[in-house]
Amino acid sequence: MPFDLILRGGRVIDPSQKLDAVTDVGFAAGKVAALGRELQADPATEVRDVSGLIVSPGIIDLHTHVYWGGTSLGIDAEEFCRNSGVTTSVDTGSAGPGNFAGFRKHVIEPSQVRILAYLHVSHAGIFGFSDRVMVGESEELRLMNPIDAARVADENRDLIVGIKVRVGLFASGTSGLVPLEIALEVAEQVGMPLMAHIDHPPPSYEEVLARLRPGDVLTHAFRPFPNTPATAQGTVKKVVLEARERGVLFDIGHGKGSFAFKTARAMLANGFYPDTISSDIHQLCIDGPAFDQVTTMSKFLCMGMPLPDVIAASTVNAAMALRRPELGSLKPGSVGDATLLSVRQGTFDYVDVVGEHLTGDRKVASEGVVIGGRWWHPR
Q: Amidohydrolase-related domain location, by residue (predicted)?
């Protein structure tokens, strides 16, 4: 089969294959077709010289809010993905069973970039999140809608990858673990993983982790005190290590209030890397402190996480969390998505959610995006 597109001469870093080598990547019929030196181009093949750039599998941002126009926190997925090198944006609970149909029809289906979703167990998802109105949807238990959540998740398995719930003082008030228990029941019913948000107690980090199952995701995993995974002595809490041992996944979900350099330094110093790096991008953090996915990746690179591990946490690890092994890889037969990256040298200022600044010497930048085997951005 002739190639539709060849990326020529880039440094391919594909953690799914433990590959780090200068080689070509060929795409055909919307999929990765071949990897190798000097792949043969036909007259109709588009050839892009990407020498000097990094070619990674299409970046997956596991935690975004892209129900633009449907919720006040939603941002435009295509604009964000163009700037951030993201080929799969995973919306985490913007919509619930009461408004997922609108999200699907008006945002997901017209989008040129892939949008998958965790469905919120609350009827209207995260509906009261703005700079003027902040209402925790899990605080009002009358909004918990497990019956319809199970039905909508079952009817939309092509797009819905799991169930979302937010617990913590800001998200669930004094409801404690009740919303989490309801969401877990839905996830169990439909056979999907759960993603749990955590903010200030109640409930505690320990209480939430104790209830998560293998394959479930704790997002905001490197958040600042209170509800941090690190002890005052800079070690990793025992319950965190036990949860990872049984298969619970730890996601960054940077956002407006959920990532601290102090926590990250402690966790990385103990060899505890996040399973997935995600931005939790929304209207209140797109202009800082999160900015985008590549900025979040840059922070981990500057804190000493090796580049292949940073890429793995944004590609193959996220694909495994989603149970979509066709994503996050450049193996032949995989979905034909790729991200072109550079690592710029210089002096760069990074900030976390509590206002601490980090001066880094490197910055990950998006230089191009391939979606479905076609060059998408920049034109």
A: 54-347
